[in-house]
Amino acid sequence: MSARRTVLRTALVAVAVIFADQLTKAIVRAEISRFEQVELILGIKLVHTRNTGVAFSMLSGGGPIVVIVACVALAALLIFFVTHLKTRLIWLPVGMLLGGAAGNLIDRVRIGAVTDFVKLPHWPAFNVADIAVTFGVLILIFVLEKYAK
């Protein structure tokens, strides 16, 4: 696949993730009060929480440092991507990672915290961007193990 098509596919995945992430967060902010919990099934709840830190609320209250770290991570991911453009299927996990990171960064810049809303039993609340990052990492490991030269 050409580098241009790889970049285009990556961008489309990233935009789709950002759109889904921002849409679901906007719905949660509009429909569920802060700290309200809505029971779904099997102990899964919808909640409206805000996270000022990174994964599992580490660096909570870090303010600009968290934004700077996120920007550095995004830059590192872009450098990685440019150096791996010829790797088969690289566009999918990188698009998911870029979209997820950008979705949460948008929240940090706009409202000072990330909106989380899916709550599983015994697990911190998370959002669509977090899901994209998690699956992006898993798919990236698979792609690198299978196709990287």
How is this fold's topology laid out?
Elements: H1 3-31, E1 37-39, E2 45-51, H2 64-83, H3 91-111, E3 114-119, H4 128-147
Antiparallel strand pairs: 1-2, 2-3
Number of domains: 1
**Rg for CA atoms:** 16 Å
For the largest beta sheet, what order do the strands appear in spatially?
A: 1-2-3
Percent range for helical residues?
55-70%
Summary of the model, kept short:
Helices cover 60% and strands 11% of the residues. It is mainly alpha-helical and 149 residues long.
Which descriptors apply to this entry?
149 residues, mainly alpha, three-stranded antiparallel sheet, 60% helix, globular
Describe what you observe in this structure:
This protein is mostly helical and 149 residues long. It has one domain. It is 60% helix and 11% strand. The chain has 4 helices and 3 strands; from the N terminus they run H-E-E-H-H-E-H. The protein has a 3-stranded antiparallel sheet with strand order 1-2-3. The protein is globular. The two termini are 15 Å apart. The mean pLDDT is 91.
